[in-house]
Each structure stands twice: as C-alpha cells, then as structure tokens.
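Subject: design request, 469 residues
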C-alpha cells in the first residue's frame, strides 16, 4: 500500500468513526456525510442486486446506451482488457448494465457486488465512482479508501456521466475500475473522453429522431393555420412552434393527458396525442365555445359534413362524414365491426373502418376515442338537436332547422336509417301542425315536391288523413 493509500485509509477510519479530517477531499467528505445520514453502514451494507440477470440483459438491449456501447469500448481501449481492470456502464439510477473484464477479475469483483443488476448509487452504497459521478453530475474518481463501503476500498473507480447534449438528460455512466495497487493515470481522461463521445453520438441520434418526428407530424400542427400551435415530443421538448415562443418550454414539459387545459399564464389550449406514447400537438384556443361544446357537427342538407373542432371548421370527405354522423348518433360508442356494417353494408370489413378512423383522428384528435369508437366530450349535431326539439316546434320552426335531409348523397345503410327516420318525423310534425305556409314551403323544396299526400293536403286543407300516409 503506497503512502497516499495509507493516508486515505487512516482519514477514512477517522472520519467514519465520527472524527473530522481535513485530509479528505471536500467532495468525498460530503458524500460520506450523505451516506451516513441515509443509514448506509460502511461494513454491513452491500449493493442490492435487482432485477435478475435476464431482466438486466433485456434492459441493456433496450437501453439507449446499447447504441453507444461500441463507441465506449473503442475509446476506453486497452482498459477493457488489462489484467485486474473492469469496465462497466450503468443506467441513470446507478444500476450496472454491463461489466467487462477478464474472468478472474470479475470473480474477485463479485464479492463487492460489482455485477450486472447491482445498484451503485449513493443512496444504496454511499461514495463510489458511479454513484458520486451521478450525484455531482460530472466525471469523478474515487480512490480506494475513499469508497464508503469497506468491501470496495481495494478498488480505484473512475466514472463519468453520459449526457445527451440535446435534451440535457443523463443517460447513464461509464466506469473503469481497477485495484489500488495498479496505477493507471489514463483512466480518468479516458473515461471523460468516452462519455463525451458517447454523449455526442446520443445527441446526434436525438436530432435525427426529432427531424423524423417533425417530418411525420408537423402537418398536424400546421393544418390549423392562423392559430397558435406546437409540436411537443414524448419527453416534453418543443420540436416546433407557430409562432415561435408562444408556448414556454417548462409548460410543454408538463403536458400529459390530451384534451383541453389551462396553462399557468391563463392561456387555454387543447392537447392532442398524435400516437399512443406521443408526441403531442398543442393548439391555442382563443374563443372557446361559451357552453363548453368543443365539437359541433353540421350534416343536414350537406353533401359533406362540417365539423367544428375546438372552434376550427373542417369539411370532411363523404366517407368521414358518414362515420362522424354515425358516432354522433351513437354516444355510447360502436365497435369496428358495427361501424363496418352501418357504413359499408353486410360485407363491410372492420380493418377498413380502423384505417379510416386513423385518418379521421388527424382531424378530430383527442375527441375520437377507441374501444369502442366514440366521440369524447360534449358533442352537438344539427340533426340530433332537431330530433330532440321536434315536439316543441311548430311546422314552420321545424322547417327552419331542416334545410334538407341528412347527408343526402350518402348510401351508407346506417345513414339511410337515420335520414329516413328524421325525414318522416319532420313530415309528421308538419302535417300534424297544419301550418299552410309551412306546407307550402315543404312542397316547394326539392325533398318535398314529390310528396303527393302533402300536396293533396295543401289543395284540400279540410280533408284530413292519417299523418303516416
């Protein structure tokens, strides 16, 4: 044991027994104090090992560090193969993911639980290369007796956090560990260089993913021209804003569930989940409906339905118009199979409905839910409002709300049922009320000019027959 190691060992013994020592680096002494306050015991505590090795292997393969592991090994070079040396990486929680070294060194390290799955953060083991580098957020070397656990006091550890420069996220650490008797002046600069190179590679991967997300989803932001919109990534970072600066980064990071919400500065926005795990489109709402109805459907007399989503109008294709009308008429929701029958007939396929729903969600956003398919939140539709209010209206008032039948160009079976039923009930109301002016308007309209019974009624108003004729 050299003089430096003997001095550190004496200082450690003194400090851990309750004394003070000016011969220990301030960062190490502060780390020892943190460990003691957490109840970590230098002789009885060990790094917990979780999860199992199989789960660690799965975690390693899926972890972002798996992509930069070759870069780390190339940079570390001979340190990974020198006798007595270990190289390992950890996740941000200090869990060791991979351990590389010769078999004899690895067997020796197992006694200190330097194994895959072991948690080497400060909360569990006190001062260590991995844990203290994570706690300080910078490269750090722990020399032999500076370790808080006695079982690790025979090792020198040089570790550095690996940080994605784009997101600022600490992805994990790289560490080189070797016996205190082995001098390796290059370990610390090698580890720091490896962490920088790996971080740069991760940053480039993040930028590429951001570009891919923008290319795929930015049209969901730009389609609502003239309003404040933003594209927010899964991790809460803003990938695009229109206009720039209207949504502050700290508010974007707080977005989660889709739907309407109010930001801390009082701005009303609507958040739309663009895929199950994100990203999100965020739209400012300048003039929310006073009654809270964020989705309105106009389909009477229209070849294609007009929907207002959060105050923005969208004219749908005929097929999407049929689907929206069916959903509005069935607030409890419909399965893909039910919608296929109603929209495409007995030979309709559920897979076709699912494909159309995916396209329709680009317009409706969070308002379109699945399992079963349904419209979320408050919905108003002109044909439903007329249906509900018919009993309270005169014949003329009914015609004021009935410019023409529901989606007259549609041949979908479900729409024909809705259209014919509403048309019959409006006609019955007209006949039962007997308003001459309303009857004249009916027979002058394209949808009433061939109504023989009403024409006869207009010609001979004193002769009455059953309204159902």
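Subject: RE: design request

Done. Sequence follows.
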């Amino acid at each position: 044991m050299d003089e430096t190691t003997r001095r550190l060992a004496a200082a450690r013994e003194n400090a851990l027994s309750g004394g003070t020592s000016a011969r220990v680096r301030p960062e190490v002494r502060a780390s020892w104090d943190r460990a003691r306050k957490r109840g970590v015991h230098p002789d009885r505590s060990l790094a917990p090992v979780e999860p199992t090795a199989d789960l660690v292997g799965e975690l390693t393969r899926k972890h972002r560090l798996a992509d930069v592991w070759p870069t780390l090994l190339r940079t570390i070079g001979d340190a990974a193969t020198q006798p007595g040396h270990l190289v390992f990486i950890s996740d941000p929680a200090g869990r060791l993911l991979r351990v590389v070294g010769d078999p004899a060194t690895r067997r020796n390290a197992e006694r200190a639980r330097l194994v895959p799955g072991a948690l080497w953060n400060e909360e569990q083991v006190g001062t260590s290369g991995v844990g203290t580098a994570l706690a300080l957020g910078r490269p750090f070397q722990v020399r032999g007796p500076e370790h808080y656990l006695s079982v690790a006091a025979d090792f020198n550890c040089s570790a550095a956090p690996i940080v994605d420069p784009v997101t600022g996220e600490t992805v994990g650490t790289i560490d080189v560990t070797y016996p205190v008797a082995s001098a390796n002046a290059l370990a610390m600069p090698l580890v720091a260089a490896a962490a920088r190179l790996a971080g740069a590679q991760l940053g480039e991967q993040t930028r590429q993913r951001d570009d891919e997300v923008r290319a795929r989803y930015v049209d969901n932001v730009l389609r609502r021209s003239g309003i404040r919109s933003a594209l927010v990534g899964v991790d809460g970072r803003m990938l695009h804003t229109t206009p720039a600066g209207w949504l502050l980064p700290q508010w974007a990071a707080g977005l989660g569930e889709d739907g309407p919400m109010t930001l801390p500065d009082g701005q009303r926005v609507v958040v739309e989940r663009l895929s199950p795990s994100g990203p999100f489109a965020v739209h400012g709402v300048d003039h929310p409906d006073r009654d809270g109805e964020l989705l309105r459907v106009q389909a009477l007399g229209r070849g294609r339905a007009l929907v207002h989503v959060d105050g923005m109008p969208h004219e749908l294709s005929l097929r999407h118009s049929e689907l929206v009308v069916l959903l509005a008429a069935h607030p409890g929701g419909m399965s893909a199979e039910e919608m296929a029958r109603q929209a495409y007939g007995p030979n309709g396929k559920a897979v076709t409905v699912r494909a159309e729903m995916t396209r329709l969600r680009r317009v409706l956003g969070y308002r379109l839910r699945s399992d079963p398919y349904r419209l979320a939140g408050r919905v108003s539709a002109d044909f439903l409002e007329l249906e509900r209010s018919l009993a309270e209206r005169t014949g003329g008032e009914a015609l004021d709300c009935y410019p023409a039948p529901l989606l007259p160009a549609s041949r979908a079976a479900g729409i024909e049922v809705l259209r014919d039923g509403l048309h019959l009930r409006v006609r019955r109301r007209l006949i039962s009320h007997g308003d001459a002016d309303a009857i004249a308007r009916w027979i002058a309209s394209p949808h009433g000019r061939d109504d023989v019974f009403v024409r006869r009624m207009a010609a001979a108003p004193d002769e009455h027959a059953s309204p159902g004729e």
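The CA atoms of residues 335 and 372 lie 5 Å apart.
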